[in-house]
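The records we work with from here on pair a chain with its fold. Taken together, the tokens spell out the fold as the letters spell out the chain. To see the layout at work, look at the sequence and tokens printed below.
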Amino acid sequence: MLRNTAREIAIHLSYELSFNNTPIDTLLDQRLTAETFSALAEEDPIYAEAPNAKQAAYIRRLVKGVDDHAAELDSYISKYAKGWNFDRIPLVASAIMRVAMYEVLYMPDIPNSAAINEAVEIAKKYETPETVKFINGILGSFARQEVSES
């Protein structure tokens, strides 16, 4: 499994947290199994291969980090979403931005440009071209104003 596939799975799980009250560790334990991946593989090819231990640890770190820092990440999204009420932002788009922002802020081993570029590429699979531009604009402004490239 490639890192961008693991990142996309982390986005799926972060999205699921938006409307699921299951405790995060329970959700991750349920979702990161070979059986779950096998069941989901017919729906989405990114589940064709279950994560190995290193990939599962990366996914867990991302999803737990996004959950732990949700208020902070959402405040950045709100800050750079000029003219948009946070509640109007699609849940998938906010999950994509949260994951990218978490990587930029808390995972120094991942280049900022890689986190943002991957987020935009993943957004192209799930969102309209206008929403992709919106995500790209927010992440670009966030990176320029809040952090420096590592």
User: Anything to note?
Assistant: The first helix runs from residue 3 to 17. The chain has one domain: 3-146. The chain is about 70% helix and 0% strand.
